[in-house]
Amino acid sequence: MKIIIALTLSLVCSYANAATGSARVTATAAGSSVYGTVKLEDTAKGLKVTAELSGVPAGDHGFHIHEFGSCEDSGKAAGAHYNPEKTPHGMIMKDGHKKAHAGDMGNITAKDDGKAVLQVVIPGVSLHGKFPVAGRAIILHEKADDFGQPVGNAGARIGCGTIVVTAD
Fold first, then answer.
1. End-to-end CA distance of the chain
2. Once rounded to an integer, what is the mean pLDDT over residues 147-158?
3. What's the pTM value of the predicted model, to 2 decimals?
């Protein structure tokens, strides 16, 4: 019993001081008003991602973690979706690591006022662990991710932010 209690306390304490990060998302095109913040937190269930964006055209937009942390060249310098397992495109929270890229968060929906919020937990992904995202970029796409192959047909990159660690 003492071992179980000690292990439980150890896990609770380790996530009480879990790594956190953020990405400041800004528009990738002149004249666009996309901006917002994405907060990231390592949890026992995976990486908790909380996004609050404004200035986004109404509707669904692909929302992904990409392989590099650069937002240069209208977000193209962020490279492809973060895909360390070389898997097909899908939604990581539903399909798991064998059937989806680690960075495939699906869509974020903007209301008519341009505000978009999303909260997801990506299993197995963390800021520093086996599938690390620190230093990579979060990309907001112009269109909805239709989950087609190879990358969801979500179109151009209209917002980008580099993931930085805020506390370890």
1. 31
2. 78
3. 0.86
- Residue 96 DSSP one-character state: -
Residue 82 DSSP symbol: -
> pLDDT digits over 105-115, tens only?
889 999 999 99
CA-CA distance, 65 to 133, in Å (whole number)?
8
- The whole-angstrom separation of Cα 23 and Cα 151 is 22
Dihedral sign, CA of 21, 66, 79, 116?
A: negative
pLDDT at residue 165 greater than cutoff 80: yes
Give the Å distances, CA to CA, from 67 to 15, 111, 115, 135, 149.
26, 28, 26, 9, 18
The boundaries of the domain holding residue 60 are 18-167
pLDDT in tens, 52-87: 999 999 999 999 999 999 999 999 999 999 988 887
Sign of the alpha-carbon torsion through 108, 158, 25, 35? negative
Count up the domains in the chain and report the number.
Answer: 1
Residue 64 resides in a domain: yes
